[in-house]
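dumping this here so i dont lose it
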């Protein structure tokens, strides 16, 4: 049986070099592991691309022409392979149990 909680994490990033490492690290540290982490670099002009590339195969990195956060989120959704998408802003970070708690809530709401 397939896990119904295959979660793709999408991190839209524009000039997020000072914050991106913290965001990615918090996604990687989840007690409920996401199936993938996608960083959508929305045309950054700082070192955002270099930070993302530094994670190698641990994340998927997509670079696009600047179109704004909504366009970056939409790109991440289209590229995602999970059944669920969780957005993590580049200047935010999650506590290690964030996705685990989200899954618990979803399971309860299903009955």
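and the seq i came up w/
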């Amino acid at each position: 049986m397939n896990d119904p909680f295959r979660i793709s994490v999408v991190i839209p990033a524009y000039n997020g070099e000072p914050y991106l490492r913290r965001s990615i690290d918090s996604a990687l540290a989840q007690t409920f592991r996401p199936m993938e982490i996608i960083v959508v670099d929305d045309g950054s002009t700082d070192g955002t691309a270099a930070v993302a590339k530094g994670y190698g195969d641990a994340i998927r990195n997509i670079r696009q022409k600047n179109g704004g956060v909504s366009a970056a989120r939409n790109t991440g959704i289209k590229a995602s392979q999970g059944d669920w998408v969780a957005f993590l802003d580049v200047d935010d970070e999650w506590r290690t149990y964030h996705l685990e708690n989200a899954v618990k809530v979803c399971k309860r709401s299903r009955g």
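The longest strand covers residues 7-13.
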